[in-house]
## 1
Amino acid sequence: DTEVTQTPKHLVMGMTNKKSLKCEQHMGHRAMYWYKQKAKKPPELMFVYSYEKLSINESVPSRFSPECPNSSLLNLHLHALQPEDSALYLCASTRSSQGIGETQYFGPGTRLLVL
Amino acid sequence: AQTVTQSQPEMSVQEAETVTLSCTYDTSESDYYLFWYKQPPSRQMILVIRQEAYKQQNATENRFSVNFQKAAKSFSLKISDSQLGDAAMYFCAYRNYGGSQGNLIFGKGTKLSVKP
């Protein structure tokens, strides 16, 4: 089973709202990733968690706050977003944190619209 | 820094025909991995094929095969017997061997259309 699940599939929020995106995998993977993807562009890495600890933050604004409660779950908390944050948010995971050629398995994404 | 270039923003192929998508990359590393991901309108990024740089043999997965030319830093994807379900955005990606987590570097993508 190489499934990564993400909820919700779609999200519309105002600039003053607080919302959360959820990502889950039950493959025993120890590294999880958040990407942001604008239309017709490749994914851009936002955060990497390795063994439930934040290991990479690609200079993402603080209005995005990641959280990894356990090895299977990754959240992205959203607060005071801007319209330009509207995008597809993808979650991915890899088996090990060393990332030695590990294949990243992606979830289906959450389509976010900020009004 | 490593870069990945896909020079064909869009490609079109007739159903049952063969199409080749181009990808070149730049790196000073000798050990790395290359991937082709497919992203259909459903949005999910799906791994199509992967190649280890230390392997001379080109990777194949059913109708999908690559032409890996390490010296030329080229990694093209050939799709044989194209099917309507192959229509998608295709991303070429690079990853260092043992590099820091997350450094999967994507090209800008090639949108493939399949004509019935």
Note: Chain A touches chain B through 28 residues (CB under 8 Å).
## 2
Amino acid sequence: KQEVTQIPAALSVPEGENLVLNCSFTDSAIYNLQWFRQDPGKGLTSLLLIQSSQREQTSGRLNASLDKSSGRSTLYIAASQPGDSATYLCAAKGNNTGTASKLTFGTGTRLQVTL
Amino acid sequence: DADVTQTPRNRITKTGKRIMLECSQTKGHDRMYWYRQDPGLGLRLIYYSFDVKDINKGEISDGYSVSRQAQAKFSLSLESAIPNQTALYFCATSDAGEVQPQHFGDGTRLSIL
């Protein structure tokens, strides 16, 4: 059974700092890994999706990497801003018989960027 | 995602009541999903559907049922609500194909007293 872990659970950084959020998964048989942002009282906004054949994806100040062999993904946020404050979730889509088509989510990292 | 609409946004009800949560989408996606989110547990899949005639159980389907009335609509029912079904419920959609991302609605906060 796939398990996804995100460390740390919460993080507070001053504005302007570069930061890395970590995501690890136990089953490397995945189609892709997706990073989401969740604001309080809101749904999930998809940030980046990395296919299993890719090493990284970039969108603006965000860069996500994937290392299937070690079961790890990282989300790098450059020059953080107060508007980046939110909970960040990663989710792995399995490609085994028991996990096909299913996203397994981590519990998220709650990020606060202070002035 | 404004293209995935969930109703109601908030609901408070009593134990034993029947409740229906509705999801509609304008993205034209074939696949639709229902998740629940609990503090400390992350999102867990309840049911999913790949087209109008297809219904599949997810990780935690007990106590829930679904109906895919049309490509654009996927409803979740709690036949007899119990307090431990208090949670934040999300609907999601995706295009066919395993490489496609999922797009989420804003959620329904359900409280069962």
Note: Residues 73 and 80 of chain B are 22 Å apart (CA to CA).
## 3
Amino acid sequence: SQQGEEDPQALSIQEGENATMNCSYKTSINNLQWYRQNSGRGLVHLILIRSNEREKHSGRLRVTLDTSKKSSSLLITASRAADTASYFCATDRNAGNMLTFGGGTRLMVKP
Amino acid sequence: ETGVTQSPTHLIKTRGQQVTLRCSSQSGHNTVSWYQQALGQGPQFIFQYYREEENGRGNFPPRFSGLQFPNYSSELNVNALELDDSALYLCASSLGAGAVYNEQFFGPGTRLTVL
């Protein structure tokens, strides 16, 4: 079963706009990770945030984590058509890489 | 490219058959995890192998089994295939297992269709 939910399930925006995706989870975690997947192929690791961190940045990506609400958000700024993909959050309870994934957000960025 | 390879890319089987999927880990990685991703859903953790021993298992029946070899390549075996086994199967390799985080790298997946 999935650990949590992602919201929205699908998002369509214009190039240059920001995209925000939210993730909720159910149990305590060691870290939370965000992945990207193009056309049902392999997953690409985007960013990891540890349970004692509240915010992290990597290039155009910004991730927040609220452990009291068991939720995280991924913000992609100044989106590009190449950002079109599915984005998944995944929780890791003990840093052992046995990940529990959400259902994903399908992002479409229109040129 | 993550350095993790999987074979075959696509596979079609019929219900009741057995299938073996293969994964070659990134060089130096001693941990491999397998995931099942049904169409339109997120991946689900099947099991993990660390230094040739099963190190953890998700909510999958015993007909899903695995092996990890001394060179850390890995196999996923599924017996008595069911229609619901149709999915993308992903393997991921990393160094170490637990306590300290090490980034996990995913392969491109094997798409299994059960007819």
Note: DSSP finds no helices and eleven strands in chain A.
## 4
Amino acid sequence: GAGVSQSPSNKVTEKGKDVELRCDPISGHTALYWYRQSLGQGLEFLIYFQGNSAPDKSGLPSDRFSAERTGGSVSTLTIQRTQQEDSAVYLCASSFSSGGGETQYFGPGTRLLVL
Amino acid sequence: QKEVEQNSGPLSVPEGAIASLNCTYSDRGSQSFFWYRQYSGKSPELIMSIYSNGDKEDGRFTAQLNKASQYVSLLIRDSQPSDSATYLCAVIGPAGNNRKLIWGLGTSLGVNP
């Protein structure tokens, strides 16, 4: 694949429903990040997977948020019992650490709207 | 103090001028530094990375790193309206934090024709 892909590109859901967002990183990339970006705001770090290490979950805003990365590749971000304040663009990025630097490549994002 | 700080702007420059974007970071142990550009409604894309003190040039873009003063800057020469975007500074955090990128909130740049 050419780049990071995310699905769905847009998701509209009702308050209280669960949603799953998917990220396919670039093949061979060991690191995967999830971010959230509200309109006009900066990137909010959510979670970071690096190889086989335990994920850094320090950015998850509540226990309604969880993420998995299966087989070191595809990742799913799950939001349970969605709230209106969860509405944002959810961005996934992957990188391959080499020589002291990590260039992150971003997917196109999933635009989530909670009604 | 935030770990990576940028002026939010907006920074406005006339077409053809030099745009100067600045970023400071708090941890002296930081190792790698990146500038990303984000157009409205789009995902961030890498412009430049820099790892050593000094200047690094790529076309109209020059990144400058000063580890002693803990700042990194991006100069855009001959600014074009197509350069209008938000510019994000990102820093690899200190050793031991699992090499996580730390992001600034971005500076909004407008280039006026």
Note: Chain A is about 0% helix and 45% strand.
